[in-house]
Amino acid sequence: MKVSMTVNGKAASADVEPRTLLVEYLRDHLELTGTHVGCDTGQCGACTVHLDGRAVKACSVLAGQAEGAEVTTIEGLANGSEELHPMQAAFREYHGLQCGFCTPGMVMAAVDLVKTHPGASDETIREQLEGNICRCTGYENIVRAVKAGAASMGGQ
Amino acid sequence: MSDQDTAIGAPAKRKEDRRFLTGEGRYTDDIDLHGQVYAYFLRSPHAHARINGIDTSEAMNAPGVLAIFTGEDLAADGVGGLPCGWEITDVNGEPMKEPPHPPLAQGKVRYVGDHVAVVIAESYYQAKDAAELVDVDYDMLDAVVSPADALEPGKPLVHDDIPNNQCYVWELGDRGAVDDAFDKAAHVTRLDLVNNRLIPNALEPRAAVANYSKGEDQYTLYTTSQNPHVIRLLMSAFVLNLPEHKVRVVAPDVGGGFGSKIFHYAEEAVLTWASRKVGRPIKWTAERVESFLSDAHGRDHVTHAELALDENGKFLAMRVDTKANMGAYLSTFASSVPTILYATLLAGQYTTPAIHCQVTAAFTNTSPVDAYRGAGRPEATYVVERLVSAAGREMGLDQAEIRRRNFIPKDAFPYQTPVALNYDVGDYDATLTEAMKVADVDGFDARRQEALRRGRYRGLGYSTYIEACGLAPSNIAGALGARAGLYEAGEIRLHPTGKVTVFTGSHSHGQGHETTFAQIVSDRLGLPFDDVEVVHGDTDRIAFGMGTYGSRSLAVGGSALMKALDKVIDKSRKIAAHMLEASEADIEYADGVFKVAGTDKSITTAEIAFSAYVPHNYPLEELEPGLDESAFYDPTNFTYPAGSHICEVEVDPETGKVQVVNFTAVDDFGNVINPMIVEGQVHGGLAQGIGQALLEGCVYDPESGQLVTGTYMDYTMPRADDLPSFKVGTKNTPCTHNPLGVKGCGEAGAIGSPPAVIDAIIDALAPLGVTNLDMPATPARVWEAINKAGATRAA
Prior knowledge:
The structure holds two protein chains of two kinds.
Chain A: E1 2-7, E2 10-15, H1 22-29, E3 48-51, E4 54-57, E5 70-72, H2 86-93, H3 103-116, H4 122-128, H5 140-152
Parallel strand pairs in A: 1-5
Antiparallel strand pairs in A: 1-2, 3-4, 3-5
Helix pairs in contact in A: 2-5, 3-5
Chain B: H1 17-21, E1 37-43, E2 49-55, H2 57-60, E3 65-70, H3 71-76, E4 108-109, E5 115-121, H4 124-131, E6 135-140, H5 147-150, E7 166-173, H6 175-183, E8 187-195, E9 207-213, E10 218-223, H7 228-239, E11 247-250, H8 266-278, E12 282-285, H9 288-294, E13 301-309, E14 315-327, E15 354-363, H10 377-395, H11 399-404, E16 415-416, E17 422-423, H12 428-438, H13 444-453, E18 457-466, H14 474-479, E19 488-494, E20 500-504, H15 513-525, E21 532-536, H16 553-579, E22 587-590, E23 593-596, E24 602-604, H17 605-613, E25 628-633, E26 642-652, E27 657-668, H18 675-694, E28 726-730, H19 748-765, H20 779-794
Helix pairs in contact in B: 10-19, 15-16, 18-19
């Protein structure tokens, strides 16, 4: 089946098997390998992308379900700018990443969190990131980064 | 250009972050080769079964299928078994029992997830679909999953020719001296302990892409490894019998390891072999369930431990008897973990004069067990610290006091323990004092009272741990049965433009070597941080390496770079002498400038590098062109990071729910190159240690041998809201025997924290009569302990 959508501001379409997941479509057909797969059960959150402006786990969405949608991945977060998005910059500043594997999903979830929970406390940030597993950082610096990223995003 | 402080000791932001933050990291699963096909491994659904036959005919006819291979195909082609790198000698003088470990099962399957066949097809879905059509005729056998069970007579035999499933019995220490000391003891503390089995769960599942180039007669394997050179060595020399110079192994960006990516796995060898058979590049990426089933697991000890004390709480002797689970086969370093890396740490930070440890290793119908963050040292720390804390409670001694009475004093180093190790330096009282200050131990009673008014029980738990890192002095390792040396290699190449490429045999999979190593090189050569590039993870680019594990990268890999830097500076001095027309003895070096003593004549490292490649007037019989130096560094001793962890918990007695409200870690890591990275390593280790103590536990069904905790639905990974905000600090004493004075920090958090958490809970619940608790201390387990203690007291 053919699926078409807008990914990082560009029109994209491909012929895929109906069982193709959005994350497979992004990685295997569009070669956007920044979105990672860490589990098969929708728990780890490494594949988090924005679908029509909302954070979703791209392993839990069929490519076909995203027909006609606007998708943003980590590659498109900075809008093609050489500068990092404020949330990306905050993760670097606060050492909120180590191996980098959960990072794209974590950053995409964090950007969404800022929109849905402006001015979030540490506790709220921790609760809201419950769906993104990081095995490296112990989350301490992720929480610091999300707070700082939220501040520099101006609470948007 | 870098606008930040990048000197040694500065918290430089990481070089690698930009690519990871923008989706430009390149992990194994991100690599696609032209003409690539896909592998799916058919795995055993049974814990233990005889294979009567495998019928692949229907599967071979499925769409897209190119080949299906089984253990018989590998055997027919002379493919060997996966080797174990450490030979342990049994107390009877015989070598350990070392059963064959075929990459694809032959005759029997021995754990759920054991590799039965590989299906190779044009697409992954086609390979997976076809695997369902492979007809395996199994005769199911009874299974055994726990080490204690497996060693009982009459239990099912994992390997038909290994009696009682016993791999080895091994001992360390003076049994007679220990027995004598126990006879004279005023008090003996006894504990039965379980060190729960863990599944490492690096977030990147294992993956491999293998390619055989017929034109060049060259194999390339991309793999999720912590040590690509070791994989090349093991695979070439022992499994596939390939000439090593025709094999390239690349470990690109790797998404966490924690030990689980040290080992040479079946999939790596099978894919490499099959890529030649099929004539196409082959890719395999584990699904998470395959990670749960077939990554090497960690821990899994059952221990009885005893501590003898005199009437003043001074330790007289320790006696430890451990049963350790090896799983179904011996993984690469499995045999060394519950022996060399465990019993040698039982002195902890204390002057215990006599220690004896016996370890019995068992085969079971479970995934192989091997090194996981800390590897043996968390298990040792758990035994020592649980004993010390229990002894303190039993004897009415304050937890800090019983420790201080037994610490090796800071003026007693170097200190020879009764369990083989020679500690070079430390100041244990300093980290404890600082940790108690940071944890506000003085204010604890008030917090405990306040919690009690809310119906909650608060407790404090201590762990003053030591570890042996910087694996390893090859001389010592060899004497203890290691079949490899454990040095590290490094190379510093200055380019004519004054830029530098650093090649290291260490491998970074989150630790930030590209930053830390660049800080060292930039600092030492006086060249800009941004002009230094660190290369790792490719056997074709780096001459040799032993990789990253055991907190060794900086202590051993960094030291190799320091040696190479010394050679670069020595040669630069010669070049400077020539260029400045001075005697070499008169050249002074500091901060990237070579100067003729007492003059204003000088030349920079960058100018020297240019000259080295444009040697128009070199005295060639005395001075070779070029500026590229390499070194191997083999340590003379282990390093001994140590520290004090203090955990404060609050327990809800109604639900058994434990909340870690404060966690303090003050560590001694020796000199610190990048404190930001060190702090991050501690955070991550603490999360894994607290995870072990409260949340994580691998469960195999004791009857069927099925893995019950095989997804993130069932195996509890620590999430952000499970963990507290950590308070961490350092009180450092520089290592005395490596050029950087560093000790290593990667495992400390996971080693020190579990007993602190458990003893905090026991401390909290002591008023209710709770005296012991096993990990993971889940709400159900804590609730049960409270109620059992209550029932006992009521009776």
